[in-house]
């Protein structure tokens, strides 16, 4: 097996040695460079061309988030943040994920002494991610939009923070009612919803049990002990939080969300974004078979082409689209004037 080439960026020599030891002992890596700040890191990365880097947030001369933004714009590659600033739910963690980091791991401390134990596996997963160019941008939302009654269900995992932010940037304030299941710890989801609410036009919050969906609303599954499902009553669609075991390996589960919408599939557009595994793929197939329209993110724009790949291969996706075309595709399908035929776009790829 070809070992993954890693650069470790941290101003602490002790932390660099800790990371180097754990990755080397794992056997799947070779640490090809180290740097104490982003300026050193820039030169090391140019020289050794790593597969993945670990990156601290607080460093001299330039902070890690500023360096991450420059790196993703000029030379995209997989990054795992390893910092005291990226423990569960931190604003820095969500910012890093939005900028394109694949994962965020908190450094060991009294509250979380064992985070180092997961480092090797998470760095290995990140090293296999594809980091698309960020040169393109989502088209601005249309000046006029009128909802046709279709609801949007979105599933995402690895790479989903950036993908969802870019997708929702293309939404108008009166967007179609949209429900999102993103694989993420509960505390991260709180920070993520708050970030989106300050950056996009629609009303974005975590979903609440019994809340009726309306135009202009984006609701995110809160995770924790609950799955998010939908129910239909007198043509209204309502959010329901349901405790339960993980489904397809996750809670919140995209499959759970998608399958709950089968009774009203003709009123649904399901979207599956970047992510590892297959959660949502079979739920999407079942929705399509029941009459829903479906979109999967394409390979080239996905950080991890797992969930959308499976959905496409098994026939769950009507269309595959580049990330920066998905918002327009959603608005086209859910706006007045869209085709009412459930499989009108089935052949479009």
UniProtKB/TrEMBL annotation:
Record flagged with keyword Hydrolase: yes
Catalyzed chemical reaction(s): [protein]-L-glutamate 5-O-methyl ester + H2O = L-glutamyl-[protein] + methanol + H(+); L-glutaminyl-[protein] + H2O = L-glutamyl-[protein] + NH4(+)
Entry GO CC: cytoplasm
Chain positions with 4-aspartylphosphate modification: 56
SMART domains: REC (SM00448)
One Pfam entry name: CheB_methylest
Response regulatory domain ranges (all copies): 5-122
Active site: 157, 183, 279
Start and end residues of each CheB-type methylesterase domain: 140-337
InterPro entries: CheB-like, CheB_C, CheY-like_superfamily, Sig_transdc_resp-reg_Me-estase, Sig_transdc_resp-reg_receiver
Membrane spanning residue stretches: none
Single GO molecular function: protein-glutamate methylesterase activity
Enzyme class, first EC level, given as a word: hydrolase
Keywords attached to this entry: Chemotaxis, Cytoplasm, Hydrolase, Phosphoprotein
Similarity annotation: Belongs to the CheB family.
Matching HAMAP family: CheB_chemtxs
Domain comment in the entry: Contains a C-terminal catalytic domain, and an N-terminal region which modulates catalytic activity.
This protein's name: Protein-glutamate methylesterase/protein-glutamine glutaminase
Source organism of the structure: Aliiruegeria lutimaris
Phylogenetic lineage: Bacteria, Pseudomonadati, Pseudomonadota, Alphaproteobacteria, Rhodobacterales
């Amino acid at each position: 097996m070809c070992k993954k080439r890693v650069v470790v960026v941290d101003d602490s020599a002790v932390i660099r040695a800790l990371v180097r030891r754990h990755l080397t002992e794992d056997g799947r890596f070779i640490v090809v460079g180290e740097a104490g700040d982003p300026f050193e890191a820039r030169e090391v990365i140019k020289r050794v061309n790593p597969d993945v880097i670990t990156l601290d947030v607080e460093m001299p001369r330039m902070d890690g988030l500023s360096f991450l933004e420059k790196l993703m714009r000029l030379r995209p590659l997989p990054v795992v943040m390893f910092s005291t600033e990226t423990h569960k739910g931190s604003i820095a963690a969500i910012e890093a994920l939005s900028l394109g980091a694949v994962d965020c791991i908190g450094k060991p401390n009294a509250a979380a002494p064992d985070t180092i134990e997961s480092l090797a596996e998470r760095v290995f997963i990140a090293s296999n991610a594809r980091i698309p160019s960020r040169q393109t941008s989502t088209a601005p939302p249309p000046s006029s939009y009128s909802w046709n009654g279709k609801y949007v269900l979105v599933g995402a995992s690895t790479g989903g923070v950036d993908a969802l932010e870019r997708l929702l940037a293309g939404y108008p304030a009166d967007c179609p009612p949209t429900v999102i299941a993103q694989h993420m710890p509960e505390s991260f989801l709180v920070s993520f919803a708050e970030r989106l609410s300050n950056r996009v036009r629609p009303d974005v919050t975590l979903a609440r049990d019994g809340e009726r969906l309306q135009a202009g609303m984006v609701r995110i599954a809160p995770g924790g002990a609950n799955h998010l499902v939908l129910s239909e009553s007198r043509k209204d669609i309502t959010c329901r939080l349901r405790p339960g075991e993980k489904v397809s390996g996750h809670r919140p589960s995209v499959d759970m969300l998608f399958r709950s919408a089968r009774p009203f599939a003709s009123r649904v557009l399901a979207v599956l974004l970047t992510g590892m595994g297959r959660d949502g793929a079979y739920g999407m197939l079942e929705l399509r078979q029941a009459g829903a329209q479906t979109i999967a993110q394409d390979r080239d724009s996905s950080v991890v082409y797992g969930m959308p790949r499976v959905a496409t291969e098994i026939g769950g996706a009507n269309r595959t689209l580049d990330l920066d075309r998905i918002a327009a595709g959603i608005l086209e399908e859910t706006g007045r004037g869209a085709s009412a035929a459930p499989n009108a776009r089935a052949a479009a790829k």
